[in-house]
């Protein structure tokens, strides 16, 4: 008899959306995203960017593994809800520690991250019966996360450059887990076909995190503006920053977000592989949105000034990361046209990095024009294609 906690994707006849428990769990990651953008805007150096990237990748991995859990286990059951709440508390500890994770709060950050990974993954093993085809892959996931956790803990015990080096190793191993099938001695390795999923639920969860990240761009713009004197130029900076957020939303959700659910539904034999791929491909998309929130803060604070190169980099890197991530997304998952986005990424890099002689608002406005141009082109092109197909 199957576990009452388990979902059974093959038996799902109607779309399955995110539960209220999952949406409540996501609230902690609103804080995490805000902490990450604040940490980056306070330290626009190579070291600061590297540290923020490490913390972002850890936060994303904690969230995406939890999304896989709620794809396999019903979050409407009490036991799964309890694990989500415990994971939420662990994530809150990790999010609180983000600004000082590389200083005196390393232990708190690792306790939050490692605690979530081990508790969640251990629960999944206990919640499946040995006869369940998913049991062996979940055992491998738990074993992999357990030994990598030791490396995270070791990083918290050292200081300075040694800590970031150790944590980068741990992060690489964490991200290598699915690619290696979470191989373990005597346990073997899993294959993507072992990781079945519910298409409608998985695609909606990814979309909700993108919305969460976009929310940070709105919050960053609003908070920055509310603390400063408002004049015509600053109001224009707020308008342009809002426009950039709208353009990101447009570029992600106009047809292509729906395409994920459609591809997962149609390619049932490849769902595990596609889910794995999407787990990685959303990293640059989310990172690009968060970096763009930093760019919005800088532009609103200094709309009429010429920014230094380190301050101009977020204006280039944020939109470029988003576009390049969506290029891989479109090419490998949707098999849709992608060249226009790559061209747009190059154009944005050129106009912003060569724009050190222009004002911040002028450079950010040019970024908006490029993003809207791509969105309009794709909207018209897709409509034309759809009309031709009919």
Walk me through this protein's architecture.
There is one protein chain. The model is unreliable at 386-390 (pLDDT under 50). The protein has two domains: 17-194, no CATH class; 200-389, no CATH class. The protein is mainly alpha-helical and 390 residues long. It has 13 helices and no strands. 76% of the residues lie in helices and 0% in strands. It holds the Pfam family LtrA. Keywords: Membrane, Transmembrane, Transmembrane helix. This is Low temperature requirement protein A. The chain crosses the membrane at residues 53-73, 79-99, 106-126, 138-158, 165-185, 205-223, 235-253, 277-300, 312-331, 343-376.
Summarize the structure.
This protein has helices at residues 20-42, 46-72, 78-97, 106-126, 135-157, 161-179, 199-226, 232-253, 256-266, 271-301, 309-334, 339-353, 360-389. It has 390 residues and is mostly helical. The chain has two domains: 17-194, no CATH class; 200-389, no CATH class.
Rg from Cα: 21 Å
Give the mean pLDDT. 89
Termini gap: 47 Å
Count structural domains: 2
Which structural class is indicated by helix and strand composition? Answer: mainly alpha
> How much of the sequence is in beta strands?
under 5%
């Amino acid at each position: 008899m199957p576990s009452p906690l388990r979902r059974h994707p093959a038996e799902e006849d109607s779309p399955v959306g995110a539960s209220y428990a999952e949406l409540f769990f996501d609230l902690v990651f609103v804080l995490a995203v805000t902490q990450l953008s604040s940490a980056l805007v306070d330290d626009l150096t190579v070291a600061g960017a590297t540290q923020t990237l490490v913390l972002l990748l850890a936060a994303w991995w904690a969230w995406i593994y939890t999304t896989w859990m709620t794809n396999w286990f019903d979050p409407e059951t009490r036991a799964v809800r309890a694990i989500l709440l415990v994971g939420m508390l662990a994530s809150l500890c990790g999010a609180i520690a983000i600004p000082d994770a590389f200083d005196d709060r390393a232990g708190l950050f690792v306790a939050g991250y490692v605690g979530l990974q081990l508790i969640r993954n251990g629960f999944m093993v206990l919640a499946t019966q040995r006869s369940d085809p998913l049991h062996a892959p979940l055992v491998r996931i738990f074993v992999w996360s357990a030994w990598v956790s030791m490396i995270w803990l070791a990083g918290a015990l050292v200081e300075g450059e040694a800590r970031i080096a150790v944590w980068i190793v741990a992060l690489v191993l964490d991200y290598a887990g699915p690619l290696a099938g979470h191989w373990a001695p005597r346990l073997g390795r899993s294959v993507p076909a072992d990781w079945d999923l519910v298409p409608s639920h998985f695609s909606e969860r990814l979309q909700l995190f993108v919305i969460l990240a976009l929310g940070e761009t709105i919050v960053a713009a609003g908070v920055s503006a509310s603390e400063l004197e408002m004049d015509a130029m600053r109001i224009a900076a707020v308008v342009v920053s809002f426009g950039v957020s709208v353009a990101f939303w447009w570029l992600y959700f106009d047809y292509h977000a729906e395409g994920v659910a459609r591809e997962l539904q149609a390619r049932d034999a490849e769902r595990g592989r596609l889910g794995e791929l999407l787990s990685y491909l959303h990293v640059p998309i989310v990172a690009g949105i968060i970096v763009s929130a930093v760019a919005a803060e800088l532009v609103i604070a200094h709309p009429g000034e010429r920014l230094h190169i380190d301050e101009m980099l977020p204006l280039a890197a944020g939109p470029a990361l988003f576009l390049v991530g969506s290029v891989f997304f479109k090419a490998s998952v949707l098999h849709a046209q992608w060249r226009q986005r790559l061209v747009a990424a190059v154009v944005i890099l050129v106009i912003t990095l060569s724009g050190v002689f222009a004002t911040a608002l002028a450079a950010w406005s040019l970024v908006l024009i490029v993003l809207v141009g791509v969105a309009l082109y794709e909207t018209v092109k897709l409509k034309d294609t759809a009309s031709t197909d009919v």
